[in-house]
Amino acid sequence: MRNALITGAAARLGRAIARELHRDHRVIIHYRSSAGAAQQLVEELNSVRPDSAVAIQSELGSATDCERLAEQATDQWGGIDVLVNNASAFFPTPVGSADEQQWDQLIGSNLKAPFFLSQALAKTLSRASNGGGSGCIVNMADIHAERPMPRHPIYCAAKAGLVMLTKSLALELAPEVRVNSVAPGAILWPEQETGDEAAQAQILERIPLARTGSEADIARTVRFLVTEAPYISGQVIAVDGGRNLNI
């Protein structure tokens, strides 16, 4: 059975991806501070299939953090076949008020960590191809990597970098490892905006399919890239109801 590491997997999209991949993978639930939610998810998944899920706590702020997480994940079941870089910080940084700490946090979680974690796992991901399949990395990008979101210049720059990192790694790690990105649109409202009905209505008006998506839409797309797309690499798949056509 193949092994998958999902970062930021204790809640929201990461949790949905973990549940979806657990259908035929053992999964490592990475978390930073959500220990209770991570353990609850592990217990849920292990009740379905024993010894199929484990939680690992780790910061992702430095290359050393990423290397340590990669080592722990690899040791758990003898290798990692799938890496999903899902962990992400998100908050506004209007020009004139942004500081270096915000820069480091947004660039660190959205770009630096995916690179150093991918680098640390490159060998074990490459070995996955010996079984007749391929190692696989899926990065969680954003439709605003191409079209900026007001008041979020650092976040958008980080996600734009992640898109280029996806393409670069797809070239660097080929042919043993495939690397792709999923770019969600309006799936889950940011926690700080859940009560802003006017802002939500304004966004919905610009979505051609006239509705938000679901966590399952993202999770199924990740699963497709992992299990059903052996000839797809270096691509960014927008799951946004057509929102990128009308930003």
Automatic annotation (TrEMBL):
Pfam families cross-referenced by the UniProt entry: adh_short_C2
Keywords assigned by UniProt, alphabetized: Oxidoreductase
GO MF entries: pteridine reductase activity
Enzyme class: oxidoreductase
EC number(s) recorded for this UniProt protein: 1.5.1.33
InterPro entries the UniProt entry points to: NAD(P)-bd_dom_sf (IPR036291), Sc_DH/Rdtase_CS (IPR020904), SDR_fam (IPR002347)
UniProt record similarity statement: Belongs to the short-chain dehydrogenases/reductases (SDR) family.
Protein name stated in the entry: Pteridine reductase
Taxonomic placement: Bacteria, Pseudomonadati, Pseudomonadota, Gammaproteobacteria, Cellvibrionales
